[in-house]
Amino acid sequence: MIPALLAIAAAFCAYIQWGDEIHLPHGNVNKKEAKYVHNVKKQEEKQKYEKKIMERNPSGYMTVEEYELLSTPKDRMTMEVEVPKIPTPADMLYVPQPAYQIVKYNNPPGSPEINIGTALYKRRQQNAQGIVSPDFTKLVYPSIYYYPNSASTACDLFVINLEEAKSNKDKILTANVLHRVSEPILSTEKSNENLYIFRTLTPVDFSPNGTRLLVKEKVGHTKDGIWKTTPIVYDFENNVSYNLIEVRGAIVYYWERYKSMNLDDKRWDIYPLGFDAENPDWVVVNAVAYTGSTPINLGVWKVTYTGEQSRLVSFDNSAVNVSINGYKLVKAGVEPPSVSEKEAEHLKKVEKEQAKQKKKDDKAELKELEKAYKTKLKEMDAEFKESQKDYNMRQRINSSTSGNEGLDKYNEIKEQQEAKRQQQLEKQKEKELKLLEKQREKDAGVNSEQ
């Protein structure tokens, strides 16, 4: 009994002495348990390998962690938008595709207006025609909102920064509300307490260099017509807007002072035409009074883009030169059937090549996954085999020695094994260098003969 207890105590002391310096591969478990753990790890690697194969064609099944990762919010500004195209049904050979062309937006000057359709009253929101800057870097469009409780409308003006690496036409076609700047640059009053009041913001034109935008704000009553139009200039360089309400006061003052007519008693309004072609720091507007069956021209006026000065230019609209700078996209018929047929033939060839390449890539991917899986298993088997050898060696040392003698002998054996391994590596390197040198000499001989 006493010798058995002494043997257990000696083994325990050896474990304490070795435990801090030598990593036991499986703690104090026996070889059968170590092999079981090794097989479990191999099974886990197999499951990982099979899962990678399944993920090539997702089935829709996923873990909670995978679902949460895929459902995290994405940056909408980085999302790709394709050029809109009418899908072609499988049983049709030709579907007319609309053809687009880029034209001037403010042509003739002052003509842009918002067309509100019946869909606004159902959807409660409508995005109107946008204007593109002269350098094709941004698109500005109004978004109109309908409030059914008061039958009134309000409006915001948003900016979409256009993509650079595309043609001008594709820049406009792929402009999407996903990429718009979140905050509007201009907004009307949003209160909807009064019935039938409408407020809209209509882009008129950009300045020649695209740094300023002229907008007209219309306020009126659905059953009574437009009450007032106010020019507004937004400065993109300083991110500020200027309300040019002063020009209305200048027009009222002129007609009361020099023509003895009080416009406050009349129905009249102004029409912003655009930026002056000779000096883009000035905005041109036309004033008209509705005092009878025939409208009366109240003159063409200029006002600085900040609204500080106003002046009468002429009573002849043709005498004023207004620049036309912004662009818009319009439909210009449909593409001829021959174009669509050629595209269809080309797409068939492309799809055939893509299917062939996909099959080739899929086969290569499967081969690569299998190779990586088998390499991993070989590494695990080699590591397990090495750990078992190490474990057996320590068991033999423990049975023949005790205390520090066993530790010293173990370290000595490990050093010898490491030295032998280094020698083998050196020999392998020398062999590879000789083969490389031999190949170089062979290549040099071939080149000299040529």
β-strand amount: 15-25%
**Strand-and-helix sequence, N→C?**
HHHEHEEEEHEEEEEHEEEEEHH
**Alpha carbon gyration radius:** 41 Å
Helix share, percent: 40-55%
Question: In words, what does this structure look like?
Answer:
- The protein has helices at 2-19, 31-55, 64-70, 119-123, 168-173, 246-258, 337-400, 404-449, and strands at 98-104, 125-127, 131-132, 138-147, 152-161, 186-187, 197-206, 212-221, 225-235, 240-243, 268-275, 282-289, 296-304, 310-314, 327-334.
- It is α+β, with helices and mostly antiparallel strands and 450 residues long.
- It folds into 2 domains: 2-69 and 347-449, no CATH class; 98-334, no CATH class.
- The strands form 4 sheets. Strands 2, 3, 4, 5 and 6 form a 5-stranded antiparallel beta sheet that branches. It has a 4-stranded antiparallel beta sheet with strand order 7-8-9-10, with no helix packed on it.
- A hairpin with a 5-residue loop joins β7 and β8.
- The longest helix is centred in the C-terminal third of the chain and has 64 residues, at 337-400.
- The chain is elongated.
Entry keywords:
450 residues; alpha+beta; 2 domains; 5-stranded antiparallel β-sheet; 4-stranded antiparallel β-sheet; 8 helices; 15 strands; 24% strand; disordered N terminus
